[in-house]
From TrEMBL:
SUPFAM superfamilies: alpha/beta-Hydrolases (SSF53474). This is Alpha/beta-hydrolase. GO terms for molecular function: hydrolase activity. The keyword Membrane applies. Keywords: Hydrolase, Membrane, Transmembrane, Transmembrane helix. It comes from the Eukaryota. Pfam families: Abhydrolase_3. The chain crosses the membrane at residues 12-32. Residues 144-365 form the Alpha/beta hydrolase fold-3 domain.
Amino acid sequence: MDRPQPITIGRKLAAVASLAYAKLVLIAYWIISNIIPSWRRDPKWTLRRAVGFRLSGWAVSEFSPKFQDICSRDWSAEPDEKELRRWNVGFARTGELQGPLLGEVGRLEKETGAKRVRVGVYWYGPQDENGRRDYSASPGERILLYLHAGMYVIGSAHPSDMSSFIPTQLCNFARTVPRVASVEYRLSSMTPNASTHPFPTALIDTLTAFRYLLELGFSPDNIFIGGDSSGANLALALTRYLVEEESLSLAGLILFSPWCDLTSSHSRPGMSRQIKREKDVLGSAIDPGSYSANALLCGLSPENPYISPACKWILPSFGGFPPTYLAAGEMEVFLDEIKTLKSRMEGIVDGGLVYDETPGAPHGTLTHTYFMEPERSQLITRVAEWIDDIRPTPQQPLIYI
């Protein structure tokens, strides 16, 4: 199966019933069970934040895995002009990726039989005089290639997705990156008999989008690569391929709460995956052996630098990686593996590493639209300032808007 099957009326009704149950029963229960500050996960939290935390955890760990088909968009869908105007975004589709892929990724492409497709790209930022029909780079223009979250099994680059806060706000706040290209990469799924779009399918799609930016006239050293959660994992993999196999220099790498170890090397007692499970929205949703991990791997060992760069059992190189901004939340289950990633990248990546840990924040601070303010706006502002402080190569002038 290469494209999603139509969603039946029964599935839609089941999803509506589940949402109604959450709204009418669970939220009322969470309000009552958090009404006294000492009953909350963190007594300093407001009631709004405590209830929002529980709702997000339910959506990630229960609703999304059960209704993966409803929580995702068809990667092959084409938004019409009315939809694009409504969301104030552009959309284009790349050509198919040309030429052989090298090294480990090329080998896995052949082994898995991954197909190459024309990939959808949503464009965030100001319109041009032609109404976003010409996406060519201006001389010296810098851009962010963004990869959305979703455990590799849900989510979308579409502006209705929670992750869209990141590309929308970064092109508003970063004066030197006026546009963001967000990739509608194919998602993994699993049935009893097969896995659809396992690794390296999403990586091939992001490579396709990167080559598309080159065709538009963007220089590699003017391209930032960024992602959130599983999208940050994918951003790390894309950067690794471009640095190690194509010897490219990039503008920068932005990692929000990266999922960077799919093995169990960070699952021992006393580590954040255990002690923060009750404090984070993820819980056990993407533990080793979870649906998300199995759908992505399809039997492939996760002890691979492209998949688990923070795994304690391997020692991947980060030589040649660009300046990196690494953000985490103090309460997230990924905290220990993110700190392992930090220790491996410090002093190695070209241009240095900035590590930003938000106190009291769960996983995915930037995707929690209504209960993680002002922290999420403060974080996006710091990242935008970091982008603007990154100096271009001498032959590339810095353009402000």
